[in-house]
Records
---
Amino acid sequence: MADSPVVEPNPILAGLACRCPRCGKGKMFAGFLGLKPRCEACGLDYAFIDAGDGPAVFVILFAGFVVVGAALVVETLYAPPLWVHAMLWLPLILLTTLLPLRAIKGVLIALQYHHQAAEGRLQRRGEQ
Ligand SMILES: [Zn+2]
């Protein structure tokens, strides 16, 4: 990640578009969530990327808020049978988890690159 940015795009927009965080042109993903080894446009090596569980956490929080909130409102207002809940919330769970997952992962990767975030390392005296 020592490479300096070529033309740094807005990290949020580049991430939402799932584009390279350095040039904003090359595609970042190969498949749904798998990453390409490097940018096809500027050659940025994607080995630095470590989104970890971040995208899943944000998706869980978002989907949980939407689905549980909607289920509570429907249950309180209409008290439908359980099969109605299943028919309503299972598709909504799929929509609120699968649709934003890739874009959120792209944003977190772009922000990691933008802020040059990396695993913390201890520095001994005399080292730079
Ligand atoms: Zn690039």
---
Amino acid sequence: MNKPLRIGVAGLGTVGVGVVKILSERAEFLSAASGRPWKLVAVSARDVSKDRGIDLTGVRWEKDACALADADDIDVVVELIGGSEGIARDLVEAALSNGKHVVTANKALIARHGIALARIAEQKGVALNYEAAVAGGIPIVKALREGLAANEISSVAGILNGTCNYILTEMEATGRDFADVLKDAQALGYAEADPSFDVGGIDAAHKLAILASLAFGQEVSFDDVEVEGIERITAEDIKFASDFGYKIKLLGIATRGVGGIDQRVHPTLVPTGSPLAAVSGVFNAVAIEGDRVGLLVLEGRGAGEGPTASAVLSDMVDVARGLVMPPFIVPTDHLKAPAKANVEKRNSPYYLRFNAADRAGSMAEITRALAEASISIERIVQRSEGRDTTSGRLPVVFLTHETDEGSMRAALKHLSKLEDVAGKPLVIRIEDSGSR
Ligand SMILES: NC(=O)c1ccc[n+]([C@@H]2O[C@H](COP(=O)([O-])OP(=O)(O)OC[C@H]3O[C@@H](n4cnc5c(N)ncnc54)[C@H](OP(=O)(O)O)[C@@H]3O)[C@@H](O)[C@H]2O)c1
């Protein structure tokens, strides 16, 4: 029998507990699949006395998680603590530097420091695997790293945050507003007490930055991701969108743009019949366009104990089989330096909603502002039932034909100066990513 795979797990929260359960429940299969026994040698978490519902008899408890990186009897460190800095980063850096394989679910760490960590892994000839960091149980990293290697990828678009997708789905189903549904999501455990990372789009942006690197062969560049959350979406927007034949989804989109890669996370109108529009509740999905394979859509659970631990274990199976691949498909020296696309040249149709004065001539002024920016209008809808009772203003929605972002920015600047337009207009891009 081959030498056992000796494992150290740091973090015994939702994901860590899921991993330990699978290690004991599927021990026989995992050992057969990799040709060697697996042994959980040591674990670390903050609170040694907490009952976690798992049997840790015979497993060493390390008070300091970083001790796992130094232990001679550990081959692979599984980092499930979280956070881009502090203990998680120290542990992963030390483990790789000491020639240990690392498996992690930590999207913030990989989005921020993935390239530097990959360089250490490559120098030491060890694995740095992070399947669980993107879209939970969906094997999207493997799909890009292995299954789609023959393809030039032209776009990756995904529903990458289950909390946002749950909130938008509930708003649509019940007609309730964002704040109301967010409270329910928190009560159900679908949203954190501090939901800002999720609803503000940061969590999705971490995942998108990783996907973009894998898809386009450039270094991860989280700072180049444009991020907008779902906080300003109202039940009224969802109803307007539905009447026009669209759903509103928070998408992460990465494409080749003018002068570089275009990476953005924002609410998006997607055609009702498209695969991404059909993804509801806490589910995630990723649509990839490859030149050989065409459109591929993967859908599944993006978070939670089982799906996330499933992804962690798939990475561990690779380690147990002795598979060591460059963490970002090609060695880091072959990755292109980050180049951000010129956003002013990005094209799409738009949904625009604002409150306008209910008086003769106000609509003419608004359409003139759009025309001066060379934006042509596809549809206009004004609804008296949404009238603001104090100001008397009415919500007006425009769908535009395809236009570049530079023109849209110019039009918005002009609109903001009009007396008849109140507040900041809500602007949502319309995309057909994943529709073909
Ligand atoms: N939850 C999901 O569905 C999901 C999905 C995809 C990816 N992820 C990623 O997976 C990772 C873990 O997430 P999680 O949801 O399992 O987190 P969690 O439930 O909050 O668990 C975190 C664990 O880390 C431990 N910990 C915190 N500080 C520590 C320290 N200084 N030393 C040692 N242990 C420490 C905690 O110990 P105590 O238990 O003693 O407090 C806890 O066991 C994160 O990177 C997250 O982004 C999670």
